[in-house]
Amino acid sequence: MHATATLKSQLQKKRAELFEAYLRQPSPRRLLKQWCAVVDETLRQLWSTHDFKQDATLVAVGGYGRGELYPYSDIDLLILLPGQENGFLTQRIESFIGTLWDIGLEVGHSVRTEAECLKEAVQDLTIATNLSEQRFLSGKRRAQQELCQKLPATLDLNAFRAGKIQEQRQRHHKHHDTAFNLEPNLKESPGGLRDLHTISWIAWGAGLNPGWASFTQAGLISAAEARQARTRWGFLQDLRIRLQGLAQRREDRLLFDYQTSLALQLGWQDSAQRRASEGLMQAYYKTAKSVLLMNAILVEQIEARTRPVHLPPVLLQDPFVRQGDLLGTTPGTLLDQKPELLFNAFLLLQQYPDLRGFTPDVLRAVWRGKRHINAAFRSNPVHQQQFLEILRQPARTADVLKRMNYLGVLGRYLPAFGRIVGQMQHDLYHAYTVDEHTLKVIRNLRRFALPRFNHEFPLCSTLMQQFDRPDLLILAALFHDIAKGRGGNHAQLGRSDALYFCRQHHLPRTDTQLVAWLVEQHLNFSAVAQKQDLSDPAVICRFAEQTGNLRRLTALYLLTVADIRGTSPKVWNAWKGKLLEDLYRLTAQVLEGEQITHDEPSTNRQTQALEILKHYGLQEVSEVTLWKTLEDGYFRRHEIRDIAWHARSLQGCTGSSKPRVRARLSPVGEGFQVLIYSPDRTGLFAHLCEYFERSGQAIVAARIHTTLDQHALDTFQVLPHHSSVEHYRTQLKRIENELQEQLDHPGPLPTPRRSRLPRQLRHFPYPARILLGDPERDGQVPLTVVAGDRPGLLYRLACVFLRHDIDLHGARINTLGERVEDVFLISSPRLDNPTERQCLHDDLLHEVSQEQSPMPTESVTSRT
């Protein structure tokens, strides 16, 4: 035991010494080699002390086998047996592996004979890959050499290469097919180290010696490209080494927690224009793009060498030819020599959708040829029309624009777009860089136009497929965030950029006005839908006046849905979709001449609800007991199907002193809708918020109503925080029973728990804002709370309302990633007093700012 502790201490000391030496004189190759040698020596020493002799062979495989061992990475080992193991050998192996863990080495190991290795390699791509990078450590060297020689002959190498290519596609898809995540994985993300490893594996599967020098000798890349590849690889290795040094564990994710420290280590400094971490990340994204390009070129070239038959090129449009399923030119370097043909190449990819992409020579030529895109190129009317034609093509628009961005062409042609390439967004909302988000918005718009995706967003698909100029929507999407990072209002600045582009490209005046208006207004649709009362005709009429006509409304709705869907996989939910669709339909009615007023008789809506209730045995309005306790405002603010559900659920128990809870699947298609009917009492909303927080349900909307006989009639839309294996009926029954029990036996409200601040908020604190608006026509005061999100925040706010004797009439809970922008309708006689209003404002600001200290807060003065 003492020897084990000593060895563990020695390893820790040696690792620390290597890190210290590395920071003084960074050399990834040297550190990886040195640490690998330390582990080699340790393993050989322990192997010897366990007295294996010639009974087994110790082999390094995987990353450790190729000598690329990071200080906190797993150590992959194969214990190669000459035959079936016996009990005595098994005990020694178990003791050996246990000792490795005891001294602090994280080991992944397998124990197999040669025959078992070959059999498993045929069946499992991961095992085959690990064995392709094997290295002898100790034991019987000849056994390892024989396995190494037999492996390629045993495998179907064509299937091996195809499997690695498919594996890469799946890995890229897992990371949303982008290198531009804000917290990328240095190893697994597109453009990361694994893409470089894949090149080596495919080369091995083609019978080539992996390595940049070997690739140069084989004529796959030039010496200059090999130098560039080594530089990119070294940069990624450097980041991974430093990242593990900071984390003091195996860590491959470039999290916000480490970005600033890494940037400072590497010499970036904060400035007035950008953070040090933004400089680091832009360097990373540039490297990732280069790695993706190198991967595409080399994988394609290696695969071309293995094809038994080389089909002759087929002329498509001189000088462009089809080479198999790739687009080529004659000669292959032509686009570097004649950059005026660059846009022709991308147009042909759209016009021949069966083409998978460019040949390696054309990829190189496009990458080099982009340097010719200058002011003269941009002002050439032919190039301008070609670019507009790319936007107008019915197929592959999003795909081609993404290729243009990765190859650097898009940023060269649109310099304003070039400035947002790799631009970070620290708004707790977006998960991607500005350019990647923009391309995802364009992709979403294109999906609306394709009938095979009609099931995703039926209304959007119908509207997009009927819209006369979808290219204008693509153009607006391209410019909607183009001015981010400059300071000021990015929508206004983006409008100016869009106007300049449209005039430079000679778009008609009406098209120019639509594009510029969409860019300027692209935030307005979601703001109205998610923060204002859509049951108020004044809100709808005002928004209809702002949009002006149905064509503009449709265009803005489509852009808004595509925009929100492109921010992050976590932001969109069905409730947001319903609010946006409701605003579109209501505004369209006004623009088409239909009048909507506050004074619609409640009997009209009762009659419509009764048509639903007739299926449940209620034939006359007079039979519905609940409606006798409700005033007109209830019928105006609730939807017909909810009015019917309330009436059906509470028939026979109206006026009861016993609370009643009912839950159902939400009609919007996601989450649950929960109805609470109870004698009104102080603190009811706080009790409900506390229950939903404790039970893991996120409130996304609440309608609070008090009947004429002083009963609370509250409806909540909730979404589970986590997916559940329970059947939905079981979940609904559990919510009903638990909430019923809490309402039947209410206890004192617990003190709000101190919750852990989300990681993003710790590194990018968001300024909290509180805005108390002017009383509306019914005396209710709109209250807006903008703050970083965290568990239990809504319950904290409910407790503040309770302390200030605030009556709550409605809540719109708008969660944007790690940020909330909630709107409440409140009332209280105390709000007439300016001092009381300020006290409420300060108390709310203090509550939402807790646990974020130190954090700047922006106090918005209440309007009186």
Automatic annotation (TrEMBL):
InterPro entries per record: ACT-like_dom_sf, ACT_dom, HD/PDEase_dom, HD_domain, NT_sf, PII_UdlTrfase/GS_AdlTrfase, Polymerase_NTP_transf_dom, UTase/UR
Nucleotidyltransferase listed as a keyword: yes
GO MF assignments: [protein-PII] uridylyltransferase activity; hydrolase activity
Keywords recorded for this protein, A-Z: Hydrolase, Magnesium, Multifunctional enzyme, Nucleotidyltransferase, Repeat, Transferase
The protein's Enzyme Commission number: 2.7.7.59, 3.1.4.-
HD domain location: 434-550
ACT domain ranges (all copies): 673-750, 782-859
HAMAP family per the UniProt record, alphabetical: PII_uridylyl_transf
Protein name (Swiss-Prot/TrEMBL): (Protein-PII) uridylyltransferase / (Protein-PII)-UMP uridylyl-removing enzyme
Gene, per the UniProt record: glnD
